[in-house]
Cytochrome P450 (Penicillium vulpinum), 512 residues
Amino acid sequence: MTTQSSGGVTEQRSLLGVISLAFVGIQIILLARGLYQIRKLRALERLYGCEKLCDESDNFRYDVFGIVKAIKLASHFHRRTSLLYTNSLFQRYGETYASNVLGHRLIFTCSAENIKHMLSTAFVDFDSSPLRRPLFEPITPHGIFTLDGADWKRSRGQLRNRLSNLRNIIDLDLCEQHFQAFLQHVPQNGQVFDVQRCTAALALDMQTRFALRESTDALSFTQSQEKKQFVEDLDLVKERIVRDGFRGPLRHLVPKRAFYQACWRARKFVTARARREVERRSSKVERTKDGHLGTGFDKSEEISQFVDQAMTILLANDSMSTTLSGLFYCLAQDERIVQKLRASIIDTIGLTPPTWGQLGTLHYVRWVLQEACKALRVFPAAVLNARVANKHSTMPSGGGTDGQSSVLVRKGDIVVFSTWTRHRLGKDFGDNPDKFYPERWEHLSSDMSGFIPFNKGPRICPGQHYAMTVLTYIVARIFQTFSTVSNYSTKEWTERISLTFENENGVLVGLS
């Protein structure tokens, strides 16, 4: 018995020894691999003349897994202070710095040079789908938000072709109808109303008319229950996408049943309109002599393409509404610009609705939009954006003690760029860049590298000219109709980051 017991103990010790050796061996292998990777990265830095990138290690010295940093980001998002927090970090660490969030290396930048390099020069080195696909796939699986490479190029080309001829897709008579519906929600005698809520409904009606060939009637006092449900579902989907984007991997811990149900209902609503539109198109396809449809027309493919394009357009819808509400927030605080804006419109085209030829002559309207609109400078619609490096790459600045040397971007790094900070802290816009001053655009160009309202490079928003044309018409009609903007907002602007950027407190004004 003693001999057997002794033998068992010996076997256990031997097994423990083998496990210990294996564990030590694995640790040595991992350490060796880590050291090899570090040496490889150092060699790449020397090859490309890169220097060390400033990081937040002084603030999160013991946060090895980036958990504390993730909690802090979530806390600021919850308290509606994300952008102020981001600005403070750029002011502390410079225009480009690194951070560790849940084990991922994030590079934050507001450098115009770096943003242009990433979006244009080194476009092929960075992807967006690894970040966007998990968020957007349930609502638009084959839209441009979820694709990269050849599939993205094909989908974007189809969407760009649809948006290419503005005179064919923008009906000014329909714009006027929607404007008149908007007027029904403006109280008389300059009484208070939330222009942010009304412009959201206006933009949605116009965008659904374009995307679905049918308005959701959000401004109508007799909106159908079906359309009301679609609007609610669309809002829920957009809100959840943004929240999940900020949560990162933690999004998997939150139930998504309501989100998936809203996606299903929204796609069902759009698919019904798509099928109707495709049937209409098919009736116009040239028929063969025996009366059958010509070859090359695949209804199912057409319907799928129509649905994804429509959902893409509607998910980006808020940029127009937040542009208008941001504009009114600024105008309500500056009577001089209101008077100058109205005078510029009346002096140029009078009081009749603008024609196509007249829209291009409203230069001060364009300056006001470029300066104050949420989709543009002071309140940009997409305040933060990101790309993932699909290979080792570089950015031209951010390294060294002065931040002027190039830096190495490792494969898998997430580069977050801040439009909000670039437009407010950048020196591109002259003195007092955070001030609402449309006249600065007399000497600036919308093509300047630091101005990023619609992105840059191959992924630049294909609907930017559509949006600016429609916005120019609406702003002209509003200030042909009203001459004063009264400010009823008693609270400061409080960020509400959805797929675009809004004021949590609404924009309370009066028009007379």
Q: What stands out?
A: The chain has 18 helices and twelve strands.
